[in-house]
Amino acid sequence: MNMVLVGIQWGDEGKGKVIDILSRKVDYIVRYQGGNNAGHTVVVGSKEYIFHLMPSGILHENKICCIGNGVVIDPAVLLEEIRGLENAGISINSRLRISSLAHVIMPYHRILDQLRETKRKHKIGTTGRGIGPCYADKISRCGIRMADILSPKVFAEKLKDNLKEKNEIFRKVYGHKGFNFNSIYRQYLNYGKIFSPYISNTAAILNRAIELKKDILFEGAQGTYLDIDFGTYPFVTSSSTTSGGACTGSGVSPVKIDKVIGVAKAYTTRVGEGPFPTEFPIKFGEFMRKKGNEFGATTGRPRRCGWFDVLMAREAVMLNGASELAIMKMDILDGLKKINLCISYRYKGKLLKEFPQDFKALSNVKPVYREVSGWPETLTKPRSYRDFHPNAKTYLKMLSDMLRAKISMVSVGSAREDTIFLDS
Ligand code: IMO
Ligand code: MG
Questions:
Q1: What distance in angstroms lies between residue 210's CA and the mean position of ligand 1's atoms?
Q2: How far is the CA of 110 from the centre of ligand 1 (A)?
Q3: Which atom of ligand 1 sits closest to the CA of residue 221?
Q4: Phi, psi dihedrals of residue 224, rounded to the nearest 5°
Q5: Which CATH number fits the domain 103-194, given the four candidates 3.40.50.970, 3.90.380.10, 3.40.50.410, 1.10.300.10?
Q6: Which of 69, 99, 205, 210, by CA, is between 20 and 30 Å from 312?
């Protein structure tokens, strides 16, 4: 079974945890888009791991983890993650594969990301990791790929070409002194040396695995509304975060994908700027942020919090072809008297039943809520569907009906055993 796992909101849905659970059932785990703007948290016992680039499945012995061609790689971050795992006694040696076609984040990408953001009138809220500029270079055909840093000659040529153009822009447009060829050249060739045992044709590896009837989990980063096409543009990231990205970002054909699983929080959060129709009022937002510990795993920024938005999630289920859902952080809603579900928007006197593509509309809609009775906080956490309070069951049933997808998992805490599987 080859599964794609995607976020159906604005990222931070709790994908890391679901990936960790599903990893047990598969042989290969693949990251296919994004870069170290992602922050996937996995809790094992009392230890918390946060991965930015490494597929979260790496914690499971014997699993092969691939970083696909669609990912943009900051070598310093990847190296730090490899070292961190080694220090924790987790051997990755024969288990990591990095696509030779994956693009490399260069120091000038990072700086440009930050400089452009400071100059923008309407800030995107980028994580400043160089993701956007690296993808921009990929699309404009001047990017540097993993294979390039293995070859001193090819790399020298490409880096020179890039610096010639970019240094001029840095100086003239941004008043930045620009970048020195030698130091980047040496540093990145060294990365190439370190990573050479891992750099490979991951598309071939994955397709061979499929022939051998192995199971693959495609680990999405970010969420549907950060997708470069379908997200709340321009407040998005620069990759295809929807399920289609799994194919272009790995070299596995769509006909080989068996299932798409969507991950959503029982409410909604967003980091960075952009419209957010169901955002809580300030005071309640602060209360929920504290309760849900909603601070970014990558930048530590406070996350904006709001009610579950059915319109948004339903559209995401459609865009991704998700047949199953994992509902995360259900326990954060415990103890609320009333819970709101946004079922439509009001805009210019009209009732919208579909998520609008018009950015101006989305920025000005008023959410229409259906009120659902809450459930009390309990000392013991539910361990099966039966243990949920009847109102919690009603909430889940409403989500499943309105989103037209089966809920297969509900999470009520960060530990591995806090995930409840619903009968299929
Ligand atoms: P995971 O995988 C939440 C957001 C940033 C910003 C916008 C663009 O942990 O769910 P970028 O650095 O990509 O140029 O930032 O996208 N963003 C995320 N928000 N979770 C993420 O990843 C995110 N990755 C990017 O906050 O608004
Ligand atoms: Mg995150």
A1: 31
A2: 15
A3: 2
A4: -55, -40
A5: 1.10.300.10
A6: 69
- Best CA proximity match to 320, nearest among 222, 411, 255, 241: 241
Tokens coding 114:
């930050």
Q: How far is the CA of 319 from the centre of ligand 1 (A)?
A: 19
- Helices 131-139 and 107-119: crossing angle, nearest 10°? 110
153 secondary structure, DSSP code: H
**Per-residue pLDDT at 424:** 52
Q: How far apart are CA 331 and CA 144, in angstroms?
A: 44
Cβ neighbours of 186 (radius 10 Å)? 10
Q: Are 266 and 327 in contact (CB under 8 A)?
A: yes
The distance from CA 62 to its chain's CA centroid, rounded to whole angstroms, is 24
Taking only the tens place, the pLDDT of each residue in 151-161 is 999 999 999 99
Q: What are phi and psi of 405, to 5 degrees?
A: -150, 155
Q: Find the angle CA(327)-CA(301)-CA(269) to the nearest 5 degrees.
A: 25
Region 46-67: mean pLDDT is 93
Instruction: Specify the fold of 265-421.
Output: Adenylosuccinate Synthetase; Chain A, domain 3 (3.90.170)
The tokens describing 317, both together, are 């289920």
Cβ(340)–Cβ(279) under 8 Å? no
329 φ/ψ sector (left φ>0, alpha ψ -120 to 50, else beta): left
The CATH code of the domain at 2-100+199-261 is 3.40.440.10
113 is catalytic: no
pTM value is 0.96
